[in-house]
Design a protein that fits this description.
There is one protein chain. This protein has about 90 residues and is mostly helical. The chain has 2 domains: about 1-35, no CATH class; about 35-75. The protein has 4 helices and no strands. It starts with a helix and ends in a 19-residue tail after the last helix.
Length: about 90
């Protein structure tokens, strides 16, 4: 439902009412045309969504670690790092 409501955000904002806090009643939501995709499409979507969240987490971790590595605050001297043969680190 998050993606459906997010998709209709502008439309829903134009239908909302209230002075200080905008409100949308349930009848407005009930009238929204919502297409439900087949199960295999939903499963593919959830897989991609999970992959995207994992990628975002990895980018955040990289951005936190990289400054520590560059500044020397985090030492990698004692790590047993195995490079792939294709990197040619002879």
């Amino acid at each position: 439902m998050y993606y459906v409501i997010n998709n209709y955000k502008k439309h829903l904002n134009s239908l909302s009412y209230g002075a200080a806090i905008q409100n949308i009643n349930t009848e407005i939501i009930r009238r929204l045309p919502i297409l439900i995709p087949p199960k295999n499409v939903l499963l593919d979507f959830y897989s991609l969504d999970a992959l995207g969240r994992t990628f975002t987490t990895l980018k955040k971790n990289r951005d936190r670690l990289l400054p520590c590595l560059i500044s020397g605050k985090l030492s990698v001297e004692d790590l047993d790092i195995q490079f792939p043969l294709s990197m040619g680190t002879d």
